Amino acid sequence: MSDPNSVPVPAPAADGKPAGPAVIRLVHGAEESPQDRLLKKHLPAWVVSGAFHVIILVIAILVGFARQGEAKPSEEIVTVVGDEKPPEEKKLDLTNPDVGLDSELKAAVEVERQDEVNVQAKVTPDEPVGVATAEATAPMDVPAIVGIGADLTAPGLEGDQGAVMGGAGGTNGLVVGQAFRGRSGATRELNLKAGGGNALSEAAVAAGLVWLAKQQKATGGWQYDGSAAPDTVAATGMSLLPFLAAGQTHKKPLGPVSRDYSQTVAKGLDFLISRQQANGSFSGIPPQHTMYSHAIATVALCEAYGMTGDKGKLQYACQKALNFILKAQHGGGSWGYQPGMSGDTSIVGWQVQALKSAEMCRDLTVDKKALAKASKFLDSVSDTSKKSTYGYRNGPGAPGTALTAVGLLCRYYVDGWGPINPGMAEGVRGLATRRPPNPAEFDMYYYYYATQVVHFHEGEVWHKDWNPKMRDMLVKMQVKGKGERVDGSWDADGAMIGSSCGRLGTTAMALLTLEVYYRHLPLYKRDTGGMKELERGK
Question: Residue 214 belongs to a domain with what CATH number?
Answer without folding.
Answer: 1.50.10.20
